[in-house]
Amino acid sequence: AYERFKQALAQKPEDPHLLATAGAGLAAFDDPEAESALRTAAILAPDVAATRLAYGAYLSREG
After folding, report:
1. So what's the pLDDT on residue 41?
2. Which residues, 6 or more positions from 28, have their beta carbon under 8 angstroms from its beta carbon?
3. How far is CA 15 from CA 1, 18, 21, 42, 61, in A?
4. pLDDT tens digits in sequence order for the chain, 63 residues long
5. What is the pTM of this model?
6. Vertex 57, ends 9 and 32: CA angle to 5°?
7. Residue 2 burial (CB < 10 Å; 0-12/13-18/19+)?
8. How many helices (H) and strands (E) does the chain have?
9. Which of 7, 24, 41, 60 has the most other CB atoms within 10 Å of its CB?
């Protein structure tokens, strides 16, 4: 699963839905790239609740 998340980010780095999903997946593996993916998703699609929720959940978990 980890490699699939990495591949997805490499293929579509501008898709906020994919960034949020893959970023959350990377976070489950404690990958430092998760923060960047989730932050970018929230910036690209601030009107999409799922992107902000994923980034907020990550920030809450990381402290």
Report:
1. 97
2. none
3. 19, 5, 10, 11, 24
4. 899 999 988 998 899 999 999 999 999 999 999 999 999 999 999 999 999 999 999 999 998
5. 0.90
6. 45
7. exposed
8. 4, 0
9. 41
Tokens of 30: 């404690």
Q: How far is it, in rounded angstroms, from Cα 63 to Cα 9?
A: 24
Q: What angle do CA 27, 3, 57 make, to 5 degrees?
A: 15
User: Does residue 18 contact residue 10 with C-beta atoms inside 8 Å?
Assistant: no
8 Å CB contact between 16 and 53: no
Length of the chain: 63
Q: Are 36 and 22 in contact (CB under 8 A)?
A: no
